[in-house]
Amino acid sequence: MRQVLLAASLGLIFSLFGTPVAIRMLVRQGYGQLIRDDGPTSHHTKRGTPTMGGAVIILGTLLGYFGAHAVTLREVTASGLLVLFLMTGLGLVGFLDDYIKVAKQRSLGLGPWAKLIGQMVIAVTFAVLAINFPDGAGYEPASTEISFIRDTGLVLGSVLFVVWAYVMIAGTSNGVNLTDGLDGLATGTSVMVFASYVLIGIWQFGQNCATTVGSKCYEVRDPLDLAVVAAAIMGACFGFLWWNASPAKIFMGDTGSLALGGALAGLAITTRTQLLLVLIGGLFVLIAVSVIVQVGFFKLTGRRIFRMAPLQHHFELVGWGEVTIVIRFWIIAGLLVALGLGVFYAEWVTGSET
Fold it and tell me: In this structure, how many other beta carbons lie within 10 angstroms of the beta carbon of residue 190?
């Protein structure tokens, strides 16, 4: 537990005090956000706000994780390192995307194919490595079975698992990316979502099959270390939110949104809660679905369901204030996180096999 608290505290402190340093550096370099002309007109006032702030979240997470291990003299684990690799790798893809935007002064960065290939290389590497490195009890960081609250028994096999993992990682990273459209929305939601994985990791550690005998135990490798990773990310997001809340002094950019989405998928895969992620990260899912529905309906009928997608921009055009939208979406995110945790705990209480 000391590791969890240390990781969260170090991530928070670094992000809280490191973000203003990053703001000054980015302003000095002229790395400001470009705003698309087809977006809400109210966003034009945000033009020039420093972007690429997600780098602070990544660095805060790494400091929190490795700092906690250094202080407690505990060894790092394969599961923790793999999730951090996924987060950092996708963050690098996002950083390149952000850098091209500000360097070439255009609202689009990496081309679609370049971005897709970058995400694919990182995701596939993670998935392949995750089904290796068994511990003393024979548990690997990931299972080739589809999981809900634990493995369901539906075995994909190695090749299909890699494909499934890529779909999950691409979906969550792009879901967080789409959510990052209003000041503090994606950051505040991420705090709640990663906090839930701190609780899940701690609970799985207390009921782990390596130390606890019984039908309710969890066959998860390194659950406590995964809680440490989640705590470090949660703390880093908390500190960043201080500066990212409306009116935002800095944006996380694709650097942060792709990294956070990747870390979320990595935690879901390694904690064997893949399908539960649909509930816990429900706001990200709703916003991503709003884009899919909007595009699909327009191609079929030539009409739009929403005034603009993603969903948060629809409510902006309806007349809701930005802060009102963010707070109400945070409430929805919190309710979905609570529902996900409730389902997770109810499964253990009832002893049902999923």
Answer: 31
